[in-house]
Amino acid sequence: MDNIAMQDRAEILTQALPYIKKYNGKIVVIKYGGNAMINDELKKMVMEDIALLTEIGIKVVLVHGGGPEISEMMNKVGKKAEFVNGLRVTDKETMDIAQMVLAGKVNKNLVNLLGTLGAKAMGISGMDGRLIEAKIKNEALGFVGEITKVNIEPIMDLLNMGYIPVVSTIGCDSEGNVYNINGDTAAAYIAGALQAENLIMTTDIVGLLRDVNDPSSLITKVTVNEAKQLYQEGVISGGMIPKVDCCIEAIIEGVKKVVILDGRVPHSILVEILTDKGMGTMVVGD
């Protein structure tokens, strides 16, 4: 059994080598959220993946959400969460809570966890260095932001110093207003501005399914034009619409490929980047 285990390990390492060479020195943006973020065991595995990718020379930028944590804090202060088309209605008090949770607790906990794994990480928000500039997306949603500009200098400075930038998706405008930015959208714009080799979007499903009730109907690869056809056919619907929209936006902005994968699967990020098999649904240009 030990010999078989050793052979399996050798095969994995052999398979990973060309991908290590391919991605060495390249930028990979990882959007992290969902159940993988609230499960401590999965969270540690994700951070282990990121620490390892950095160790082998990949420049990882971690963009995180924190919706469940925001809702939890709102419940503690007796404030009810309200959503419209998947976006949190954000009045001034809710924005204060979101900023406190995302740029504070969630961000610093991830930085601390990466540090315990031997990785150099630095937490920043979209306000730092005016990384994410935004404006009001819709008056009815309050302080929900639409991105107008991404300034990549703070991220590039950290990458060049060997740090993993850990980005909370809070934006700002020239008048000092602060905005809650959708995590998937922020990751797409940041990856585009960085001309990233890959954007990985973790989610709570296996990927894009042709039949939402059949996990085996996974669509492993789709081009932008094919995705547009899947919209018309109703295959891409509901909560997948904004997620695929973000994938397409990233490709248009210059990202080489985007992968939607199941963050609940242990070490899914490593499997996607460093093996022939890969995971989830890959979105590429035409």
What does this entry look like structurally?
The protein has a single domain, classed as 3-Layer(aba) Sandwich (Carbamate kinase). A hairpin with a 5-residue loop joins strand 9 (170-172) and strand 10 (178-180). It is built from 10 helices and 14 strands. The relative contact order is 0.15. The strands form 4 sheets. An 8-stranded mixed sheet has the order 5-8-2-1-11-13-14-12, sandwiched between helices. It has a two-stranded antiparallel ribbon with strand order 3-4. Strands 6-7 form a two-stranded antiparallel ribbon. The chain is of the alpha/beta class and 286 residues long.
Shape: globular
Report on the biggest sheet. Answer: 8 strands, mixed
Average pLDDT score: 91
Within the CATH hierarchy, at the fold level, what is the topology? Carbamate kinase
CATH superfamily heading: Acetylglutamate kinase-like
Order of H and E elements: HEHHEHEEHEEEHEEEHEEHHEHE
Quickly list its features.
286 residues, alpha/beta, Carbamate kinase, eight-stranded mixed β-sheet, two-stranded antiparallel sheet, 44% helix
SSE arrangement:
Blueprint (H helix, E strand, L loop, with lengths): L1 H22 L3 E6 L2 H4 L1 H16 L3 E6 L2 H10 L6 E2 L2 E2 L3 H25 L4 E5 L6 E5 L8 E6 L2 H8 L3 E5 L1 E3 L5 E3 L2 H12 L3 E6 L17 E3 H10 L6 H13 L4 E6 L5 H7 L6 E4 L2
Parallel strand pairs: 1-2, 1-11, 2-8, 5-8, 11-13, 12-14
Antiparallel strand pairs: 3-4, 6-7, 9-10, 13-14
Helix pairs in contact: 4-5, 7-9
